[in-house]
Amino acid sequence: EVQLVQSGAEVKKPGESLKISCYGSGYSFTNYWIAWVRQMPGKGLEWMGIIYPGDSDTRYSPSFQGQVTISTDKSITTAYLQWSSLKASDTAMYYCARWLAARPSFDYWGQGTLVTVSS
Amino acid sequence: FMLTQPHSVSESPGKTVTISCTRSSGSIASSYVQWYQQRPGSSPTTVIYEHNQRPSGVPDRFSGSIDSSSNSASLTISGLKSEDEADYYCQSYDSSNYVFGTGTEVSVL
């Protein structure tokens, strides 16, 4: 069974760093792109970026380029999303999702990680 | 490019609703359009991929289409049920840019 399991909720202060994770299982992790999607409170879905674990090829939305870093450790089938200096405006739910190129769609999603940034 | 959807639609049980998704630039037919359903407190799930294909398990009450003349895609839900009450997002892509629509809240009266 394909699963994407994300790390737990985080509460951070502005200026702090953070790295959240997305563990993939039940499929060949290196052969599928993994994306990160932001959902601010009461708002819609925003694509942040995507990574191919096989070779770490990474693409970012222009809106998030330079604001976050997406990485992967294929030895433990895990993708990451990290911030070096959080802002209050980073408060949101973050989802990882697998891109299925054969039937173009995000076919599996993680359960989401709630990040709260508050002083 | 952007994908614009109506903010909300509502209809009675058993009726039909159609949600539009208009692409701001570039042809709607140039890349496949997907539709996702997000119920409150849950992660999104795919209801339509490749403009009009349903994943297994999605009822045939859900259908998708595109209209090149209006440069838009549509999701139609027929025989509306209370369980269809959710937010719906269209999604497409362009080069290495994956774009979600603005989202539509469907209410079942």
What is the topology?
The complex is a heterodimer of chains A (119) and B (109).
Chain A: E1 3-6, E2 10-12, E3 18-25, E4 33-39, E5 45-52, E6 57-60, E7 69-73, E8 78-83, E9 92-100, E10 105-109, E11 113-117
Parallel strand pairs in A: 2-11
Antiparallel strand pairs in A: 1-3, 3-8, 4-5, 4-9, 5-6, 7-8, 9-10, 9-11
Chain B: E1 3-4, E2 8-11, E3 17-23, E4 34-38, E5 45-48, E6 62-67, E7 72-77, E8 86-94, E9 97-100, E10 104-108
Parallel strand pairs in B: 2-10
Antiparallel strand pairs in B: 1-3, 3-7, 4-5, 4-8, 6-7, 8-9, 8-10
Q: How would you portray this structure in words?
A:
The complex is a heterodimer of chains A (119) and B (109). With 119 residues, chain A is mostly beta strands. Helices cover 0% and strands 54% of the residues of chain A. Chain A has strands at 3-6, 10-12, 18-25, 33-39, 45-52, 57-60, 69-73, 78-83, 92-100, 105-109, 113-117. In chain A, strands 2, 4, 5, 6, 9, 10 and 11 form a seven-stranded mixed sheet that branches. Chain A has a four-stranded antiparallel sheet with strand order 1-3-8-7, with no helix packed on it. The relative contact order of chain A is 0.31. In chain B, strands 2, 4, 5, 8, 9 and 10 form a six-stranded mixed sheet that branches. In chain B, strands 1-3-7-6 form a four-stranded antiparallel sheet, with no helix packed on it. In chain B, a hairpin with a 2-residue loop joins strand 8 (86-94) and strand 9 (97-100). The mean pLDDT of chain B is 96.
Produce a short descriptive summary.
Chain A has no helices and eleven strands. Chain A is mainly beta.
Series of H and E elements of chain A: EEEEEEEEEEE
H/E order of the elements of chain B? EEEEEEEEEE
Overall strand count of chain B: 10
Percentage of residues in DSSP E strands of chain B: over 45%
Number of helices of chain B: 0
Distance between the termini of chain A: 40 Å
Low-confidence stretches of chain A: none
Greatest interface and its participating residue counts:
A-B, 22 and 25 residues
Looking at how many chains there are and whether they match, the oligomeric state comes to: heterodimer
Q: Strand fraction band of chain A?
A: over 45%
Radius of gyration of chain B, rounded?
A: 13 Å
Question: How much helicity do the residues of chain A have?
Answer: under 10%
- Overall structural class of chain A, as computed from helix and strand content, comes to mainly beta
Q: How many strands of chain A?
A: 11
The biggest sheet of chain A, with number of strands, parallel, antiparallel or mixed sense and barrel status, is: 7 strands, mixed
Distance between the termini of chain B: 33 Å
